[in-house]
Amino acid sequence: MAGRRVAVVLAGCGVFDGSEIHEASAALVHLSRAGAEVKIFAPNIEQMHVIDHLKGCPSEEKRNVLVESARLARGNIQDLAELKVGEFDAVIFPGGFGVAKNLCSWAVKGKDCSVNELVKSTLEAFHSAKKPIGLCCISPVLAAKIFPGCEVTVGHSKNVDGRFPDADTAAAIEELGCKHISKDVHEAHVDSANKIVTTCAFMCKAPLHEIFDGVGAMVSEVLKLA
Fold first, then answer.
1. What is 5-225's CATH topology?
2. Of 90, 98, 123, 176, which is the most exposed, with the fewest CB atoms less than 10 Å away?
3. Alpha-carbon distances of 102 from 1, 24, 27, 124, 171, rounded to whole Å
4. Which CDD domains match (predicted)?
5. How far is CA 31 from the centre of its chain?
């Protein structure tokens, strides 16, 4: 697995309007442990809005997705427009509402959303090159919109024991003509035909270490396919 070149694409910084910080960190830790060579990217666009994470409500300020993502990347980040698929073996998108607000409009329009053109072309390029794509939390909806018939998981399709409050996302994915595979938080699903690996992460109400392990399962499967 060592030496695999992996692009990680962020959507801001903070669960309610950007990338989910624990998911992004978990992915980076697991990639580091596996000896992967990682570069981090984000689109240079304005966020849909900014959420005050203490109050849980929108604020009036404006923020840029690339600038905010740089916080998570410790400043070592590039504009997504600069990503060259030929230089990488795989791509991973952590979750967070930023995916559903900034990378696409799922948060507002659900299955009728549009995907940012640069995000779409990036995913299509990896898919065309038969290079693996790793997606966690809400990020699998990107694949569901772009690759009809693909298989993904966002957890369970029913709200089992109250642990999967966003189970209706699974139904929306099915309505897009994709197959939703129910998996628990520590598991990842591999769509071998499309080389798409998904895990539910914070779509499940679970302890942080279980989410960390699930992201690890996703990273491990991505690296096996790379």
1. Rossmann fold (3.40.50)
2. 176
3. 31, 16, 20, 18, 22
4. GATase1_ES1
5. 15
Amino acid at 66: L
Nearest partner of 16 among 118, 119, 135, 98, judged by Cα: 98
Active-site option among 13, 104, 136, 137: 137
Instruction: Tell whether the model's pLDDT for residue 32 goes beyond 90.
Output: yes
136 catalytic residue (yes or no): no
Do the beta carbons of residue 51 and residue 11 sit within 8 Å?
A: no
- Looking at residue 100, what DSSP letter applies? I
Model confidence, pTM: 0.97
Residue 142 per-residue DSSP state? H
Q: Over pLDDT 70: what percentage of the chain?
A: 100
Other residues' Cβ atoms within 10 Å of the Cβ of residue 193: 10
Report d(CA 107, CA 205) in Å as an integer.
19
CA distances from residue 182 to 169, 171, 206, 213 in whole angstroms, order as listed: 12, 11, 16, 17
**Using CA atoms, how far apart are residues 140 and 151, in angstroms rounded to an integer?**
9
Q: Which amino acid is at 145?
A: K
Domain boundaries along the sequence of the chain: 5-225
